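Project outcomes to date are best conveyed with an example. Our students and postdoctoral researchers have been running inverse folding experiments weekly, and each run begins with a structure described purely in tokens. The record below, which covers 460 residues, was selected by the lab manager from last quarter's runs and is presented without edits.
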């Protein structure tokens, strides 16, 4: 077995791991990055499917994502605005298709008032939440012990208002039913974006895209790191030295990361992988009890990202922006996702959580027909016949196992959140799932990569 000696070994060549590696190398440290896949990027993946460039993973850039924007500038990457000219589409509970402009859906006046009121209440609560320490809120435990669905029920009896507000957190972000995560977890999601209003503003949260795809970020970082990155090297075991303090806390002095063909000996290791994969690695000695418990209270969401490419962006001819929503549709949201300078038109739609479970019980042909039928309710019959159709199914990815990110179960955030990023001896953790600002976005991954690199450089 080949042996490599280095200062820091990094597990995972996504944005967090590559950012940490870059900062450490620039500071004069030696690094080795071990990546299980045969590519870099993690949940950023731009690929060509049947001649069409598709953003299989993350893709959007919002104006508050300072860390990502700085990285784009450093790499010389260009951005362009998402197409948003024209009217949006909303489908109500009776299946009636309505056109609208602005952020508020065309719902009855009473429901509109309830939606606006809920947004104001959530913005007020979010303003009290530190995204880096949501568990520090005076009512964190109380908010973490009720589901977001239950919290909404305590605020309004308007079912359509609850469904629409829930859709922005449950379907569009955490990709879990709103009875499955807490009010505190929902507030963290909103706080990570600056406010709940930002989450409901598609023109803000889905502002721009990167020319050539967002995977250009990890690809650009990887190019600079060169042979320090070793692909196809899933880490099976981490051996780490420890001494035991008075409270049983592990204080480490060295680490060995073992793959099927490598042993990498280092002073520190950064686990830059989704939290649910941390327990896939064997540890000698085992991680502390707190870590074992913590990771049993985290799980990935689940969403199908649907790509449909057409000869032209036909919806624009009808004066449509391509933006569409409905909490009553199989595909609960969709957008114009046409690539930069591409004469063809691309729509991207999303099928989340329990709805995604349901369509995956069907054959591929039946699933495609059901999803395209739902999309056609927004855009008309032309949507039924794309020239390219593709489903991003991250739940089937061995080294991801869901999308978009991991979140805590009921009570888990207040109970374990403070331990999520805490190093264990020489073992450090960095991932977008652990971020405060930029949580579950590449911006958060970059922030976490910088944070953990700084900690190592400062000897923490």
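After processing, the design step wrote out the following sequence:
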């Amino acid at each position: 077995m080949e042996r490599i000696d280095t200062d820091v070994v990094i597990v995972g060549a996504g944005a967090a791991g590559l950012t940490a590696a870059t900062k450490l190398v620039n500071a004069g440290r030696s690094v080795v990055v071990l990546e299980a896949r045969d590519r870099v990027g993690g949940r950023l993946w731009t690929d060509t499917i049947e001649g069409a460039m598709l953003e299989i993973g993350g893709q959007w850039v919002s104006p508050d994502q300072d860390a990502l924007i700085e990285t784009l500038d450093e790499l010389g990457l260009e951005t362009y605005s998402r197409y948003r000219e024209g009217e949006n589409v909303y489908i109500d509970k009776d299946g009636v298709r309505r056109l609208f402009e602005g952020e508020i859906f065309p719902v009855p006046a009473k429901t509109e008032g309830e939606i606006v009121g809920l947004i104001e209440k959530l913005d007020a609560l979010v303003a009290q939440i530190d995204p880096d320490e949501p568990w520090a809120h005076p009512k964190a435990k109380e908010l973490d012990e009720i589901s977001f669905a239950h919290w909404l029920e305590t605020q309004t009896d308007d079912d359509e208002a609850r469904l629409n507000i829930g859709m922005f957190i449950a379907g569009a972000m955490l990709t879990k039913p709103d009875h499955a995560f807490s009010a505190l977890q929902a507030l963290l999601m909103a706080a990570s974006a600056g406010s709940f209003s930002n989450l409901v503003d598609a023109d803000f949260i889905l502002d721009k895209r990167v020319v050539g795809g967002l995977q250009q970020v990890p690809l650009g970082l990887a190019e600079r790191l060169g042979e320090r990155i070793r692909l196809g090297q899933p880490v099976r075991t981490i051996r780490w030295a420890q001494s035991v303090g008075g409270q049983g806390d592990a204080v480490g002095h060295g680490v060995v990361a073992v793959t099927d063909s490598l042993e990498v000996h280092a002073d520190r290791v950064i686990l830059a992988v989704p939290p649910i994969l941390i327990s896939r690695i064997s540890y000698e000695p085992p991680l502390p009890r707190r870590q074992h418990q913590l990771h049993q209270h985290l799980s990935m969401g689940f969403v199908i990202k649907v790509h449909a490419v057409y000869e032209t962006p036909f919806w624009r001819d009808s004066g449509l922006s391509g933006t569409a929503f409905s909490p009553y549709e199989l595909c609960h949201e969709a957008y114009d996702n046409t690539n930069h300078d591409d004469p063809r038109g691309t729509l991207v739609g999303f099928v989340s959580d329990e709805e995604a479970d349901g369509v995956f019980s069907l054959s591929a042909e039946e699933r495609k027909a059901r999803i395209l039928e739902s999309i056609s309710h927004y855009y008309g019959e032309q949507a039924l016949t794309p020239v390219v159709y593709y489903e991003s199914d991250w739940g089937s990815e061995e080294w991801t196992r869901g999308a978009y990110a991991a979140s805590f179960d009921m009570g888990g955030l207040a109970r374990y959140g403070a331990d999520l990023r805490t190093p264990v001896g020489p073992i450090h953790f960095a991932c977008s799932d652990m971020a405060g600002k930029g949580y579950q976005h590449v911006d958060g991954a970059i922030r976490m990569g910088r944070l953990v690199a700084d900690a190592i450089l400062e000897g923490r």
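The first strand starts at residue 2 and ends at 5. Residues 108-200 form a domain with the Guanine Nucleotide Dissociation Inhibitor; domain 1 fold (CATH 1.10.405.10). The training component of this project remains on track.
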